[in-house]
Automatic annotation (TrEMBL):
It comes from Phaeodactylum tricornutum (strain CCAP 1055/1). Pfam families: HGTP_anticodon, tRNA-synt_2b. Residues 179-438 form the Aminoacyl-transfer RNA synthetases class-II family profile domain. This is glycine--tRNA ligase. Belongs to the class-II aminoacyl-tRNA synthetase family. GO terms for molecular function: ATP binding; glycine-tRNA ligase activity.
Length: 528
């Protein structure tokens, strides 16, 4: 890649795509706001996904569930007990780190490796983290006045996450002689809140860390109201919240983000899921390409061994090569019937737990689920069999996809000897589809034709009217935010040919099109 994350973040800020949240209060780590162009882009990305996976498919329907569910949901799903990352505290700095994002640096002493201690490194990307670890180790050597000794390549801290407390204590740290980091411990990533006027244990609720559970909770409702038969899917787009220990890499890992998920319900059986799983991998990849991700930046990561969740039969990530490395863009998991079974069982338990006041309150809260707890089973009319359906789950982060789209579209070239940076967005997702430019801003005849055309075009697409500055500068402005077409109204338009010039962002080629044909010309290219 020829550009850095700083280029991308700078462009997003400068052109009103993405801002740090609460910026006037110095921001808030892990939270971002989408500006005028970012919110358009986001809407287009979500619309494209919904159109592809819901509108265009007869076997997928949508839901829009609440963000806060009955808290029993998260006990049944396993999130209360198991949705955590390993965390360590630095005793010196009082900062917290995700253990699997730390490095420790052994230092060569007379040819032998000596561990000087753990280094608290929290940097933008892995290459920077390693560099920072080395820098800290060197500074350490200097402060200990140990000249002539060299620093080895830092190790991934994950290698020592499994260490026992006794083993950790063996590792000396500089100065104090004691480890500067606590032992890794599980940190639950769910944000807690309280619901209702009473503030006690029974009122604790959670902001959802994924949209998927809202789908499972509605399985029976959708089944009985939408006349779908297995195999079929339920889709949802919405906010999710995770108290990430170290949010990083801009909107790649934030604490509030959006997900686009499908639960695709299929019959049980080891011979059944592989074909569906593969189909969803293929369909997901085709979608990503259709909205403009560069094929050469996409990759795979097939989960194996420990990486595969205990209940899952398979999981394949589609990865993307970001400026900070190749990372998960989305996951496509074959989840068995874990979730529906857990909710069948969990909602049943809540009903029988009535006895104490607390349990009674929990019972009232979960009444809706109890009502359905008769079983989240499916009766297959053809085979006359009853079963809890299995499912395939493609899960894609909206914000992560937006970052991938921006990185994929980011380009720099030269036009007429001048450097330009542009976003080569696919017209489907471009925040502004067309810019309308009268050659001069104070020539009434030009302006009136331009405004008239602008009013017609904006009924169909998000367009921009730009009359300020030299025409070349206006083209650059449009290129930089990824506007695929600029329509210029000049003196020939009003005096001779009743036609306009349409300029293509990527090739900078210009064509002359009669005014009456402008909409159909653009429509062919924007709407496909
Ligand atoms: P990671 O390993 O990166 O933490 P994960 O495997 O926990 O991600 P999933 O639970 O599978 O992620 O979530 C599905 C998708 O949701 C991810 O592929 C990603 O696109 C998106 N996502 C998850 N966590 C975040 C986050 N903190 N910020 C932005 N997007 C996220």
């Amino acid at each position: 890649l020829t550009y850095s994350m700083e280029d991308v973040v700078g462009l997003c800020k400068r052109r009103g795509i993405i801002f740090p949240s609460s910026e006037i209060y110095n921001g808030y780590a892990g939270f971002y706001d989408y500006g005028p162009l970012g919110s358009e882009l986001k809407k287009n990305v979500k619309d494209a996904w919904w159109k592809n996976f819901v509108m265009m498919r007869e076997d997928v329907v949508g839901v829009d569930s609440s963000i806060i569910h009955n808290p029993e949901t998260w006990k049944s799903s396993g999130h209360v007990d198991g949705f955590s990352d390993p965390m360590v505290d630095c005793k010196e700095t009082k900062l917290r780190y995700r253990a699997d994002q730390l490095f420790y640096a052994p230092v060569m002493v007379s040819g032998e490796a000596e561990v000087l201690g753990y280094l608290c490194v929290q940097e933008a990307n892995e290459a920077d983290m390693a560099k920072e670890a080395k820098k800290q180790a060197k500074a350490l050597l200097k402060s200990l006045d140990r000249k002539g000794e060299t620093v080895q390549e830092p190790f991934d801290f994950r290698e020592v996450v499994e260490a026992t407390e006794a083993e950790m204590a063996q590792i000396p740290s500089p100065g104090s002689g004691k480890p500067t980091l606590t032992m890794p411990r599980a940190f639950n990533l769910m944000f807690q809140t309280q619901v209702g006027a009473l503030s006690d244990a029974a009122s604790v609720a959670y902001l959802r860390p994924e949209t998927a559970q809202g789908i499972f909770l509605n399985f029976k409702n959708v089944l009985t109201t939408s006349r779908q038969k297995i195999p079929f899917g339920i889709a949802q787009i919405g906010k999710a919240f995770r108290n990430e220990i170290t949010p990083r890499n801009f909107i790649f890992r934030s604490r509030e983000f959006e997900q686009m998920e499908v639960e695709y319900f299929i019959p049980p059986g080891d011979e059944v899921w592989p074909a569906f799983h593969q189909q969803w991998i293929d369909d997901s990849r085709a979608f990503l390409l259709s909205i403009g991700l560069q094929e050469e930046l996409l990759g795979w990561d097939v989960h194996e061994g420990d990486k595969l969740a205990h209940y899952a039969q398979a999981c394949t990530d589609i990865t993307f090569r970001f400026p900070f490395g190749e990372q998960e863009l989305m996951g496509i998991a074959a989840r068995g019937n874990y979730d529906l079974s857990q909710h069948s069982e969990g909602s049943g338990k809540t009903c029988s737990g009535v006895g104490t006041l607390e349990a009674f309150r929990a019972f009232l809260n979960s009444y809706a689920i109890c009502f359905n707890s008769v079983g989240l089973e499916y009766y297959d009319e053809q085979t006359k069999e009853k079963y809890i359906p299995h499912c395939i789950e493609p899960s894609l982060g909206v914000d992560r996809l937006m970052l991938a789209l921006i990185c994929s579209a980011y380009a720099e070239d030269e036009v007429g000897g001048e450097k330009r940076s542009l976003l080569k967005f696919d017209p489907k997702i471009a925040p502004i589809k067309v810019a309308v430019l009268p050659l001069l801003k104070n020539k009434e005849e030009l302006v009136s034709v331009a405004r008239d055309l602008f009013d017609k075009l904006r009924r169909r697409w998000n367009c921009q009217y730009d009359a300020a500055g030299a025409i070349g500068r206006r083209y650059r402005r449009a290129d930089e935010v990824g506007t695929p077409y600029c329509v210029t109204i000049d003196f020939d338009t009003i005096e001779t040919d009743n036609a306009v010039t349409i300029r293509d962002r990527d090739t900078t080629d210009q064509v002359r099109i009669p005014l009456k044909d402008v909409i159909s010309y653009l429509s062919e290219r924007i709407d496909g």
